[in-house]
Every structure is written in structure tokens, then in C-alpha cells.
Amino acid sequence: MRLPKFLLVLCLLALAGGAWASKKSNNLERNQYTWSGAIRWGEFEQAQNLIDAGYRKEHPVSALELERYKQVQVTSYRDVGSSMDAKAGIAVRDIEIGVINRHTQAERTVRYREQWRWDPESKNWWLHSGLPDFWDGM
Predict the structure, then answer these.
(1) The pTM of the whole model exceeds 0.85
(2) What pLDDT, in 10s, does the model give residues 32-76?
(3) Which residues are the signal sequence here (predicted)?
(4) What 3-state DSSP class applies to 78?
């Protein structure tokens, strides 16, 4: 009689664990959607709210850099590959961003890699790669 109860408890725990992984995954998708929307619409100051506080402290974005972001218009934001290891709390997403310089009207495509990490304390995914660098190599 004990074995069926034990198996039932194990099944319930497995289901609860699956629900937790699904909730964690949904949280990541929600944050990535919010992030991509902020970047797509040029809301770079808002996007910074999804960057890990420790990362922001180590890599502060100056007022001059924020002004520089106002010089570009994002025309596209495309996910070209992603992976997630829920157990390790790591997710990576490769992005292709179309950018137009507002002054020269020159358009180019920039590759960017988002690195997300799960924070068990806040139960949230945080970006650990900062704002995209539209001027790398320029």
C-alpha cells in the first residue's frame, strides 16, 4: 500500500518541477520580449532596467552614450538563434539588428549576443551583456 502512495508523491513532485521550469521559461520569454521591444522602439533607458544591477554598476552607460543611441533608428530586431539551460540558469540569444543613422541615413546590420542569467533570489532573468554596441569597429 505504501508503494502506490510513494509513486503518487513522486509523480506530483515531477509535475511541480515541470511547472516550475515552465514558469521560469515563461519569465525568460517575457523579459526577452520586453527587452527586444524597448530596443526596437529606441527606449534604451527603459531597456537598462532589464540589465543586471551588478553589470550596470561595472559597466555604467554615460549620458553621452545615451545621447549617441538617439542618433540611430532600429529598423529590425531578429532572433537568429537561441539556447537555454534552465538548470544552469543561462540563456543565450543571437540577434541581428537593422540600424539606420538618423543623420546620414546609412543603414547597416549589427550582430548582438544577449546573455541572460537566472537570479534565484529575485526569481528573475537578468541580461548580462548590456546594450547593443551599434558602433563596434567604427
Answers:
(1) no
(2) 999 999 999 999 999 999 999 999 999 999 999 999 999 999 999
(3) 1-21
(4) strand
